[in-house]
Predict the 3D structure of the following.
Amino acid sequence: MLKSFKTEINPSEEQKVKIHKTIGTCRFIYNFYLAHNKELYDNGEKFMSSNRFRVWLNNEYLSEHPEYSWIKKAYSKAVTQSVNNGQTAFTRFFNHESAFPNFKKKGKSDVKMYFVKNNPKDCRCERHRINIPSLGWVRIKEKGYIPTTKDGYVIKSGTVSIKADRYYVSVLVELPDNKTADNSNAGIGIDLGLKDFAIVSNGKTYKNINKSARLKKLEKQLIREQRCLSRKYENLKKGEVTQRANIQKQKLKVQKLHHRIDNIRTDYINKIIAEIVKTKPSYIAIEDLNVNGMMKNRHLSKAVASQKFYEFRTKLQVKCNENGIELRVIDRWYPSSKTCHCCGAIKKDLKLSDRIFKCSCGYVEDRDFNAALNLRDAITYEVA
Ligand SMILES: [Zn+2]
């Protein structure tokens, strides 16, 4: 079982320079790979894979352009990974899963320095420091956060990243399997959505509580009281006699309603999680929802915020940890809705309005339930 840990590090000045140089080279190579393939494409030539690109770069391009030989000085595993990332971006584009890959801009993009354990001395971790290939020992700010080598844990790979002048390391650690006999029931998949809050592969559906009569009534009441409050403010601006105490009273009324609505939503989430965990599944599989992306969509943001998906995910993780349940997070590009759970065929033209999934193999199922089954049975996932 692999688990990832991310924590702040405190590199020396010399190490900082190295990190910046490596990340700079990775960004350069990534962009170069994109540009090169774009050029091939424009000339009607075949797409170049990550492997072929690296062979071409080393054997042909760099020997003709010695001014770029600094590329070779960078930690090669990191450079290779950035070309692989470029290939992944293209694959997604070819599969119509994302737009044409973007060039990475300096300071704006999340280019990371990848590293991997290649020999026994790599990636050792002590309470206060970690050995990162090409950097050496780097101090960790939060001592003991990453499981140590001494205790038998093995770091497989990781990345170093920079954000707002702070440095972070993220590592994948192999943890011993500790499946407790307690959670011996079958694993379950959960499909989260806007129509219903959650559809579970065990057959349970949790409705979207915001569509309940009770919350609709409270929301209406809130809008009314908010209007009343802004009217009082406007009157005050116009110079009319409105008592400050009255405004204060109205403000309190609005706040209390906000709280009440918020509490109902939180209670609901807690209840769902408690119910799911109580069934003692050996694992729970969910989709890695792009909450930030959905919040940027102004048509969705209010609905998404009111469903508290992020809070759900965080709390579910805590409960899973407490109860020794493995939480599997499935990549958001995995076509859980479009895949037929019966024959595995992918239905590319599935529309958001298609509530029933019908496959040419004869399988007919509720769209979200089909997705929950696919999440349950997904074979690639990250353990959170
Ligand atoms: Zn089918």
About this structure: The chain has nine helices and 14 strands. The longest helix spans residues 244-278. The mean pLDDT is 89. The two ends are 10 Å apart (CA to CA).
